[in-house]
Design brief:
With 643 residues, this protein is an alpha+beta fold. Helix content is 51%, strand content 16%. The protein contains 18 helices and 12 strands. The strands form 4 sheets. The chain has a 5-stranded antiparallel β-sheet with strand order 4-5-6-7-8. Strands 3-2-9 form a 3-stranded antiparallel β-sheet, covered by helices on one side. The longest helix is centred in the last third of the chain and has 94 residues, at 549-642.
Length: 643
């Protein structure tokens, strides 16, 4: 779908970019520049007339309270991030048995980050955000030649030649930027959602000329630059080295497609494929990278990043709802800092009137032309008694309550910023007990953790992802390509770890060495102490927990003896149980057979009684029979005798 060309025919890409950059920088100058410069003076301890709290103020003292709060908070967050040598980890959505690609990518990134001083750059980003509310950084990819000492055998190994090995390597650097050296669309909530963003700063002229020689920038004449105080890194040296610097503007964002095509066609060294790729895009705007040196276009190309992301990152120390500026440490304690400075300067001004000697003099009794100044050893001539002519005098004494007021302003500044010192710890319960110290430290630790999570989500994790994408794109032979999830492993800062160690020590005192939690707590204390030989202590502690061979043998013999005794006792108990079961079964059987026995005994008794009765009856009948037989024999004999 074709779009109507709403741009002037005479407009060029550099004029379009310059107009937007100037407009966005005017917005910054009108709303934030003065405050950021004052915050930087407070941090550096420098005084300007605009920082005076009253017209009669003569003292130029600046309290270091805010600087201390900045350094303490930044050190706590930085320690939490880089507490471990491996400050991030990688997870893969695709399950791999050996995860070799993850290990290689993690090791390569850590190695390159260390060589390119990424940790130092991250520390500067944190410090800038704490001072000026918000900080920015640019990701720069460059190809450089790395040289390493090496030897080469000669004459069959009899001699060794000493020299260097050269290797082309891709470097991904992080360049910190101050807010005045960065521009972005003020109507967008983030740099990725705006029309564009970029950096505007001075660089050495030779660096641009070298890139022109390498073919990275166009080979065009770059005129001299005029000093722009708004973007000078250090205003104290703004009038020096005017001829050896170049104002370099790097723009990342959307540009009119037609203007980008015209600018790319004017470049004889640009690849034809890139121009054709831009011509195939019918959208009104296209994502591009535009670089200008002293107003001259030296590079214009479609965004070369494979993920289409921009090369800039931002981090606000604290989030302000409805604002993109953020809120830093000095901003939080600004009112307390101004009150503290006013109190201390007023005391210094009062000391000038109360400490230095002053004299009341009767001018009518002094010789003509006498200098009314006092110094050691000076002789003053008077017309009359000097005690009547000269009178020492002062304007009162300095009120001692200023000490208490200054201390109260310092306490309020600590409360506002969340920084910690001895006064913050002793503010609860006088710092006399561990419970009071814990109550004082706990909210401070929570605020630092909140800042740490904000930094990880908004800056550190996106930077690691962007750096990995660029290494995958420009050095695929070394870096494995894949969809990885980067997890930052920042834990606790030094204050939080000391607080946690104190709590674990107290818990350790409540249990004996035989408790299963005892070795776990000891190892946790060693891990949080962050000492140089911590790993050796942990290894020695684990080794001490492992028993020796003699102890293992004795424990095994003791266990076997206990097992044999237990088996014997178990067998005895089983025999007793079987005997008891037999007795119980016998009793049950006897109980069941008792009625039958009773019936049998009854039948037997009845049978016996019947037998006895039958025997008696039989005997009786036998006797009767015998008697009858006897009678019959007698009768028969009688009968025979009669015959």
């Amino acid at each position: 779908m074709e779009q109507d060309n709403e741009f002037s025919a005479a407009e060029t890409l550099e004029s379009w970019v310059t107009s937007h950059v100037d407009e966005w920088q005017r917005h910054y100058q009108a709303n934030y520049a003065d405050k950021h410069e004052e915050y930087m003076r407070i941090f550096k301890g420098e005084f300007a007339k605009a920082d005076s709290t009253r017209d009669s103020e003569r003292s130029t003292f600046v309290s270091p309270a805010s600087a201390q709060a900045v350094e303490s908070s930044v050190a706590e967050v930085e320690e939490a991030i880089f507490n471990n040598q491996k400050f991030f980890d990688i997870k893969d959505d695709v399950r791999d048995e050996d995860n070799q690609d993850i290990q290689d990518l993690r090791n390569y990134l850590h190695e390159d980050f260390a060589k390119n001083k990424v940790r130092k750059a991250i520390g500067e980003v944190l410090l800038t955000a704490a001072i000026q509310d918000i900080a920015y950084a640019e990701i720069v990819v460059e190809e450089s030649i790395t040289k390493t000492p090496a030897t080469q055998p000669l004459l069959g190994g009899e001699l060794n030649a000493v020299g260097v090995n050269s290797e082309d390597k891709v470097k991904c650097k992080l360049i910190p930027l101050m807010p005045k050296n960065f521009f972005k669309d003020p109507n967008a909530s983030s740099i990725d959602e705006g029309l564009g963003c970029g950096s505007d700063r001075f660089v050495p002229r030779h660096s641009v000329e070298m890139l022109q020689e390498q073919g990275v920038y166009r080979d065009v004449h770059i005129p001299g630059s005029s000093s722009e105080l708004e973007i000078e890194t250090d205003l104290d040296i703004s009038s020096q080295y005017e001829e050896n610097k170049v104002r370099l503007i790097k723009y990342n964002g959307l540009v009119p497609t037609d203007l980008l095509k015209d600018a790319m066609l004017q470049d004889d060294e640009v690849e034809v494929a890139l121009v054709a790729d831009a011509e195939d895009d019918d959208d009104m705007y296209i994502e591009a990278v535009v670089i200008m040196a002293n107003g001259v276009l030296v590079k214009a190309i479609r965004n070369p990043n494979m993920m289409g992301d921009r090369n800039f990152l931002e981090f606000a120390w604290d989030t302000v709802p409805g604002s993109n500026a953020g809120r830093g440490i000095i901003n939080k304690g600004y009112n307390s800092q101004k009150g503290l400075d006013a109190e201390l300067r007023a005391r210094q001004d009062a000391l000038g009137l109360t400490v230095h000697p002053m004299m009341g003099v009767d001018a009518t009794k002094l010789p003509r032309g006498t200098q009314l100044s006092v110094r050691p050893g000076k002789m003053l001539l008077t017309n009359g008694d000097p005690r009547e002519v000269l009178h020492p005098m002062n304007f009162g004494q300095v009120d001692q309550t200023t000490f208490a007021q200054a201390s109260e302003f310092h306490r309020m500044l600590q409360t506002a910023t969340g920084a910690i010192d001895s006064s913050a710890v002793g503010s609860v319960d006088g710092g006399r007990t561990s419970a009071g110290a814990s109550m004082a430290i706990a909210p401070i630790v929570k605020r630092h953790r909140r800042t740490l999570v904000n930094f990880q989500d908004s800056f550190l994790t996106p930077f690691i992802e962007k750096a990995a994408w660029r290494y995958m794109q420009f050095d695929p032979d070394k870096y494995p390509v894949g969809d990885f999830n980067f997890v930052v492993t920042g834990t606790l800062g030094i204050i939080a770890r000391e607080h946690e160690v104190a709590q674990m020590v107290q818990l350790l005192q409540t249990m004996g060495a035989e408790s299963p939690l005892y070795p776990v707590l000891v190892q946790g204390i060693i891990d949080n102490m962050h000492i140089s030989n911590g790993e050796e202590l942990v290894a020695s502690f684990k080794q001490s927990l492992e028993p020796s061979e003699e102890t293992v043998a004795a424990q095994q013999a003791e266990a076997e003896g206990k097992k044999a005794m237990l088996d014997a006792q178990t067998a005895a108990f089983m025999g007793q149980a079987n005997e008891s079961n037999a007795r119980a079964q016998k009793s049950a059987v006897e109980t069941e057979l008792l009625p039958q026995k009773f019936e049998l005994d009854t039948v037997e008794a009845v049978t016996k009684n019947l037998g006895k009765q039958e025997d008696q009856e039989f005997q009786k009948r036998v006797k009767i029979a015998d008697a009858l037989l006897s009678e019959r024999k007698i009768a028969s004999a009688e009968n025979i005798g009669n015959a």
